[in-house]
Amino acid sequence: QVQLVESGGGLVQPGGSLRLSCAASGFTFNAYSMTWYRQAPGKERALVADITPSSRRTNYADSVKGRFTISRDNAKNTVYLQMNSLKPEDTAVYYCNARVGLYAYWGQGTQVTVSS
Which of 26, 37, 54, 56 has the fewest CB atoms within 10 Å of its CB? Predict the structure, then answer.
């Protein structure tokens, strides 16, 4: 079955960096776009970035443009989110998402906390 497992979250000071990873299995990874979402306390889940199967196109939320970079390694079935210049408002649970056929699959999420 489809599995998405995020890792790489943690506590970081403002201005710091983190790299999130999402390891995928159970589907043909290189055939599907992948998306990172985040959900802050008391807020709805929101799209952060997505990437097409060949990495030809990426898309970012305005709030993270120029600071975050999404990438993927199809040989490793893994999608990444490099987060630089982190701000307290980036604090959230970050989720990996794949839409495979009619279904949307989610990982369990990884907590990112930006605080001094």
Answer: 56
